[in-house]
């Protein structure tokens, strides 16, 4: 009984903070952003902070790249729902943990690889806030170097898209992915398992995405999903192999 009361009090506090800010004039909101030490690049994402992590106020940590790259929570939940059976998921570009946390929350065991040690520290902190740190093995390293030694049921790929300027091109071709192009990335993943999930820009060249399934013989099943938050298209998720066929849902 006591715990319930505490929980609802917490929710009320957060809502009131949120609505307080949104009713403030724009200039005052901007001052508040500056007070929180947020850079101009991050500002736009700061306004979306509860969409990124619903538990943002509990001490979530992100650096600049983390802010603009983290998968919004509702999208990460949708992607994780494909992997509900007890499954080992390899999150090859784990960032500050947006996806790893949701995979772990749905009973998967997660191997989370991230090249930047500072982001790994943040991801561990964030996973602790969601109470799932025991279900994630964090590895600081380069996915391409580690790939030959990795084993898992599903590979999840959300590589860097080249920063927020990815939107400037009309069609985002797979060679623009970093640190290697989409074909090299897909082949490295396929050597681990044909069950692959990729999170890609909303302006991605879908014909090229379709071609990826022909890198395998017989060609892999695939499914393309558009991901919206508050009615706004944020990205595209592509499910390949067993992840498309519902084998893990
Ligand atoms: P966005 O297009 O930069 O933001 O990123 P927004 O608010 O949709 O921009 P607007 O001005 O068009 O309204 C949208 C989402 O894409 C982010 O929340 C991230 O989940 C994802 N994303 C963006 N970038 C630059 C990356 C990236 O480099 N890598 C990955 N994996 N995801 C990214
Ligand atoms: N899905 C993540 C965001 C991933 S952004 C989330 O929700 O938080 C892409 C990440 O890939 C960045 O954090 C970047 O540091 C990392 N990265 C870049 N090159 C890498 C490599 N070769 N191996 C592993 N991680 C890499």
Describe this structure in words.
39% of the residues lie in helices and 16% in strands. It has 249 residues and is of the alpha/beta class. Strands 3-2-1-4-5-7-6 form a seven-stranded mixed β-sheet, sandwiched between helices. The longest helix has 21 residues, at 2-22. It is globular and about 50 Å long. Mean pLDDT is 88; it is low at 1-23. The structure holds 7-methyl-guanosine-5'-triphosphate (MGP) and S-adenosyl-L-homocysteine. The site of S-adenosyl-L-homocysteine has 23 residues, from α5, α7, β2 and α9.
What's the SSE blueprint?
Layout: H1 2-22, H2 26-35, H3 40-46, H4 49-52, H5 64-69, H6 73-80, E1 88-91, H7 98-105, E2 109-114, H8 117-129, E3 136-140, H9 143-146, E4 154-157, H10 182-190, E5 196-200, H11 206-212, E6 222-229, E7 232-240
Parallel strand pairs: 1-2, 1-4, 2-3, 4-5
Antiparallel strand pairs: 5-7, 6-7
The chain binds 7-methyl-guanosine-5'-triphosphate and S-adenosyl-L-homocysteine.
**Rg, Cα atoms, Å:** 19 Å
The residue fraction in helices comes out at: 25-40%
Largest sheet features: 7 strands, mixed
How large is the share of residues in beta strands? Answer: 15-25%
Strand order of the largest sheet: 3-2-1-4-5-7-6
- Tell me, briefly, the overall form: globular
Distance N to C terminus: 35 Å
Attached small molecules = 7-methyl-guanosine-5'-triphosphate, S-adenosyl-L-homocysteine
Number of strands: 7
* Class by SSE composition: alpha/beta
* Count of alpha/pi helices: 11
Poorly predicted residue ranges: 1-23
